[in-house]
Design a protein that fits this description.
alpha+beta
Length: 262
């Protein structure tokens, strides 16, 4: 383990091999008995089956445990896996508080979902994506990172426990009702055509959208699982949204390995 400054606590220490998306997400995707044996990875240049993950030495052991304890372990327990999809199953037996077309809105606090930990997890992933230049193993670009600007430091302080939830930030959480999104994952990406920067990512049926604005556009805080009065969560069929993202990649990607025969 290299000795360097941890990106979260800023203390010099032994650094652990940290993952951008938790390693457990890949285990959930890698279903037992799947013909391809590994998850399908698709980028703008390449499509293949692989269990390789984006990782690097970024955090010390104490901070790894802090992220696990405050959000990651709980959120992973709510994702879709071989034994079901706990978050969606909880929503399905609860009464929604609003419905907009096919989208149902639930009060997380009323039905016993720990929305604070979901929000913490969402910010931890987005912060990790912005705090480090990750080695990009699936693209021609050598590194992967996102731009968080002035929001990077307030996120770090919140995750460390030395600051409040960042001002002008909203975390929207959606449980996907479609099978395609429940069996997919992708790293934080900037949404197009939005009135403020929104980074979205998907992990085994749970879609997170972290919006940042100074100030946030009207209505955004009302959809935040952390700051809204009812700690709202959403149930939505994300098939169209997910497939559009993959279709854009498929238009330019080169299929390799086992996928060429499928």
């Amino acid at each position: 383990m290299p000795i360097d400054a941890c990106k979260l606590c800023l203390q010099t220490n032994d650094l652990r091999d940290s993952h951008l998306l938790p390693a457990a997400v890949w285990r959930l995707l890698n279903e037992a008995g799947h013909k391809l044996h590994h998850p399908i990875i698709m980028t703008e240049k390449l499509a293949l089956t692989s269990s390789k993950q984006i990782h690097d030495y970024v955090l010390c052991g104490d901070c790894e445990q802090r992220l696990n304890r405050n959000g990651e372990d709980y959120t992973i327990s709510q994702m879709r896996g071989a034994r079901g999809f706990p978050l969606l199953e909880r929503l399905r037996v609860a009464q929604w508080i609003a419905q907009h077309g096919s989208v149902r809105v639930y009060s997380g606090s009323a039905i016993g979902v720990d929305t604070d930990k979901l929000a913490y997890f969402a910010l931890s992933v987005v912060w990790r994506a912005g705090a480090h230049q990750w080695r990009n193993i699936y693209s021609d670009k050598r590194t992967y990172s996102i731009q968080l600007g002035a929001f990077l430091e307030p996120m770090r302080q919140f995750l460390l426990g030395t600051g409040p939830f960042p001002a002008n930030v909203s975390v929207n959480v959606q449980a996907a009702s479609d099978d395609h999104s429940q069996k997919s994952a992708y790293t934080p990406a900037l949404a197009a055509g939005t009135p403020c920067p929104i980074y979205g990512f998907l992990t085994c049926g749970i879609h997170f959208a972290v919006a940042m604005g100074d100030p946030l556009p009207p209505g955004y805080l009302e959809t935040c699982c952390y700051n809204s009065a009812a700690n709202v969560l959403f149930e939505k069929n994300l098939h169209g949204q997910s497939t559009r993202a993959f279709d854009r990649l498929y238009a330019t990607t080169r299929v390799t390995g086992q996928l060429r025969t499928r």
